[in-house]
Design brief:
By secondary structure, the protein is of the alpha/beta class. The chain folds into 2 domains: 240 residues, TIM Barrel (Alpha-Beta Barrel); 82 residues, Non-ribosomal Peptide Synthetase Peptidyl Carrier Protein, Chain A, CATH 1.10.1200. The protein has 14 helices and 11 strands. The strands form 2 sheets. Strands 3, 4, 5, 6, 7, 8, 9, 10 and 11 form a 9-stranded parallel β-sheet that branches. A two-stranded antiparallel sheet has the order 1-2. The longest helix is centred in the C-terminal third of the chain and has 19 residues.
């Protein structure tokens, strides 16, 4: 599979762009565990053209995470075109347009998946962005606004016609948000449409190697994209890649390995952002690494409140000592864990 000049392995596995999740340190960890492509958090076009500090900070990428895409969103053509030019100046491998975010504050004002209710505007915006930048332009979107308006087949053909290099489809409508089961039927129909010649990437509910393989085998997609299943689990890419190659399911990381991963992640966050911001931004990740451990409330509270890097590292280290006999899936009864 190719996106522009980027060559990907067969059955590639991508990290989905997610607000407050796919920051540089998390992208680094996912890449280390085998993600074939990573994306920034989605970035407001209005924020970029106003030089908003938070939006500009999201443009920070490193060579170690390549190939990497910068994703932008907005509801007006001119600001989106200018935002695409600004994003391109950060030298990503791909400019990705967010036509998929279902959150009310974004979709409700016509951006994200709200754009699916105005297909001519969506197509024209995409055409203008493709013309404005040299980097490959890709799109991430959904099946439609709701069950009565699943217009993704029309959208896929029209976006291909204006020059996008790949299309990612989340198998839900905007109305579903993240509820219910993702429907990959239309994703497969688009992929197998002889008029479609760009890569089609499927997204939604992929949380294991077995499920990724089923999506590849059943729907023929060029790649799968994993989103929420990466929370506190950057090693999912290692699991999926191993299963696709061998058909074997890897055991979940031990508590000790999770501790080592969390400490590496924290160190990378501090290296990139400095101690104060690096520690604050790790709070959203740290407790997720240890979900399922019994009697963990007080330690979790420390993980999300400590500001001193040494205290935080010591707290993380203590987890291996105190819960080393536990299984992080929660399957081992608390009685088998250390007495805390």
């Amino acid at each position: 599979m190719r996106i522009g000049d980027i060559e990907f392995p067969d059955r590639a596995v991508f990290l989905a762009p997610m607000e407050d999740v796919t920051d540089p340190s998390f992208r680094y960890m996912c890449k280390r565990f085998g993600a074939d492509m990573v994306y920034t958090e989605f970035i407001s076009s209005d924020g970029l053209i106003r030089d908003a500090r938070k939006s500009l900070a999201k443009l920070e990428i490193s060579d170690g995470e390549r190939p990497v895409g910068i994703q932008i969103y907005g509801n007006q053509i001119e600001p989106m075109v200018e935002a695409a030019r600004i994003a391109e100046s950060a030298n990503p491998d791909v400019i990705d347009i967010n036509f998929g975010c279902p959150m009310k504050k974004i979709a409700g004002r016509g951006a994200g998946s709200g754009m699916m209710r105005d297909v001519p505007l969506m197509v024209e915006m995409t055409r203008r962005i493709v013309q404005a930048v040299r980097k490959p332009v890709t799109v991430k979107t959904r099946l439609g606004w709701d069950d009565e308006s699943k217009n993704i087949e029309e959208i896929a053909l029209r976006l291909q016609d204006v020059g996008i290099a790949a299309l990612t489809i989340h198998g839900r409508t905007r109305a579903q948000l993240y509820r219910g089961e993702a429907d990959w039927t239309l994703i497969g129909k688009i992929k197998n449409n002889p008029a479609i010649h760009i890569p089609i990437i499927g997204n939604g509910d992929v949380d294991s190697g077995e499920k990724a393989k089923r999506m590849f085998d059943t729907y023929g997609v060029d790649a799968v994209m994993i989103g929420r299943a990466t929370y506190g689990r950057p090693w999912i890419f290692r699991e999926v890649k191993h299963y696709l190659a061998t058909g074997e399911t890897l055991p979940q990381p031990s508590v000790a390995e999770r501790v080592a991963i969390a400490k590496e992640h924290l160190a990378k966050s501090v290296e990139i952002k400095g101690e104060r911001v690096g520690v604050l931004e790790m709070r959203r990740h740290l407790s997720n690494y240890f979900k399922g451990l019994p009697d963990f409330k007080q330690t979790r509270l420390k993980l999300v409140t400590l500001t001193d890097i040494d205290e935080l590292q010591a707290t993380i280290s203590s987890i291996a000592d105190r819960w080393g006999d536990c299984d992080a899936s929660g399957m081992v009864p608390p009685s088998l864990c250390h007495d805390i």
